[in-house]
Amino acid sequence: MSATTAATKLMTLVPGVNKIAVSLEKRQTTVSFDDAKTHAEILTWVIQEAGYRPQPQRSSQ
Predict the structure, then answer these.
(1) Candidates 3.20.20.80, 3.30.70.100, 3.10.129.10, 3.40.50.720; correct CATH number of 3-49?
(2) Whole-angstrom distance, CA of residue 40 vs CA of residue 58
(3) What are 35-60's pLDDT values in tens digits?
(4) What's the pLDDT score for residue 7?
(5) What distance in Å separates the CA atoms of residue 56 and residue 25, rounded to the nearest whole number?
(6) Tell me: the pLDDT tens digits for 26-39?
(7) Residue 28's Cα: distance from chain center in Å?
């Protein structure tokens, strides 16, 4: 299992995560989530635990 797949699977276990889109070309992952059920700090921690250095950015939507 690749590290990207492992990180994605970990994020799917977080309550409130609605959608995960990975772009290997851009080296970017976009996570949509319900902020009533989780928050960016939890997702940041999960990504760090998977061995990545997250750089959270807020959506312009």
Answers:
(1) 3.30.70.100
(2) 9
(3) 999 999 999 998 888 888 888 777 65
(4) 80
(5) 18
(6) 888 889 999 999 99
(7) 10
